[in-house]
């Protein structure tokens, strides 16, 4: 079997497996294998094929890591949707308590000492699984 066919089969397998994982890393490696197959098809030696695959895989991995770090983190945007929402007090003692929000009981704490629990409380921040509450 020709070397370029082996590279292109490897590329197809990597891209196919990538479709089930969704991480994009296997897609980068599939592109690197396809490029090595192209190098083999034009007559490059095995060392050139391996260098082509290695360089494209390394550069693609670095580019993908940079892209993933620079994109917004969805977990922070989900928490941002909670900020400003009103909660129902279940129990409150001092500056801590439990509130009902989105159908579940949450631990909560006051954002400052002057928070009045007899007035409606809104979410000011989310710290782990604790809601930080303040008055409107």
Give the helix level as a range of percent.
40-55%
Q: Output the structural class.
A: alpha+beta
**How many helices in DSSP terms?**
4
Residue windows where pLDDT falls under 50 for at least 5 positions: none
- What's the story with the biggest beta sheet? 5 strands, mixed, barrel
Protein model, in words:
The protein is α+β, with helices and mostly antiparallel strands and 136 residues long. The protein has 2 domains: 68 residues, no CATH class; 60 residues, OB fold (Dihydrolipoamide Acetyltransferase, E2P) (Beta Barrel), CATH 2.40.50. 51% of the residues lie in helices and 25% in strands. It has a 5-stranded mixed barrel. A hairpin with a 2-residue loop joins strand 4 and strand 5.
List strands and helices in order, with pairings.
Layout: H1 3-21, H2 25-41, H3 46-70, H4 74-82, E1 86-93, E2 96-101, E3 104-110, E4 121-127, E5 130-135
Parallel strand pairs: 3-5
Antiparallel strand pairs: 1-2, 1-4, 2-3, 4-5
Helix pairs in contact: 1-2, 2-3
Short description:
This protein is of the alpha+beta class and 136 residues long.
Name a few traits of the molecule.
4 helices, OB fold (Dihydrolipoamide Acetyltransferase, E2P), alpha+beta, rod-shaped
